[in-house]
Amino acid sequence: MGIRIQQAEQRDRELVVSVMEEAFHDAPVSSWVFPDEAHRRAVHGRFLGVFVDVALAEGRIDIAEDEAAVALWLQVPAGAPEEEDPTPALMRETADPGNERCELVGRLTGAIHPHDRAHAYLLMIGVRPDRQGEGIGAELIGAELERCDREGLPAYLEASSARSRVLYERLGFRFLGCAVDLPDGPPMYPMWREPRTR
Fold first, then answer.
1. DSSP code of 125?
2. pLDDT digits (tens, 9 = 90+) for 142-195
3. I want to staple 95 with a disulfide (CB 3.0 to 4.6 A). Which of 38, 46, 72, 155 is the partner?
4. Cα dihedral angle (74, 48, 129, 31), rounded to 10 degrees?
5. CB atoms within 10 A of CB 177
């Protein structure tokens, strides 16, 4: 396919949030965090906007040239963080203060995030629903994984569904063996990819 990829800037924030909102509106984790569909429509973009802001400030966001997909990446250094991550609390405060699930999903995934080695972290990837299944997401991720391979850098993500887990396995990620179990909700699958040597 050979898609062209551009890096998002601050002016692209709303575009990125829009793609993410479309991609994840009916996803299992989003439906668990915001069970009421009308309420989800009202607050989901604010919730996802926190992830976008973190990636714009501390990482990188890749956009497929036709704006069909976005990928949010962070570079995570080795060693446990010295301070508690404020992002989960900010997710709740920004999107839906009365909804503890906004914060819980971030706390549970943060608790199992590996810190023994530096790695690229795929925070989120979203493909517009009408473009899913075309391989755009795999190509968007693949560009970063090629860099990881050149630099000898592992990569990490949490698959938010069994379907996405299969996609990531095709890209070389392996399930770490212990799912994140959201209370009365869907499992999330922590996955790790060792760099491939040529």
1. E
2. 999 999 999 999 999 999 998 899 999 999 999 999 999 999 999 999 999 999
3. 46
4. 120
5. 8
pTM across the whole model: 0.94
> Which tokens in the block code for residue 170?
């095709």
Tell me: the pLDDT tens digits for 73-116? 999 999 988 788 899 999 999 999 999 999 999 999 999 999 99
Q: What's the CA gap between 159 and 193, in Å, rounded?
A: 13
Q: How far apart are CA 68 and CA 81, in angstroms?
A: 34
| In contact, 160 and 30? CB cutoff 8 Å | no
125 with 114: CB under 8 angstroms? no
How many beta carbons lie within 10 A of that of residue 59, not counting itself? 15
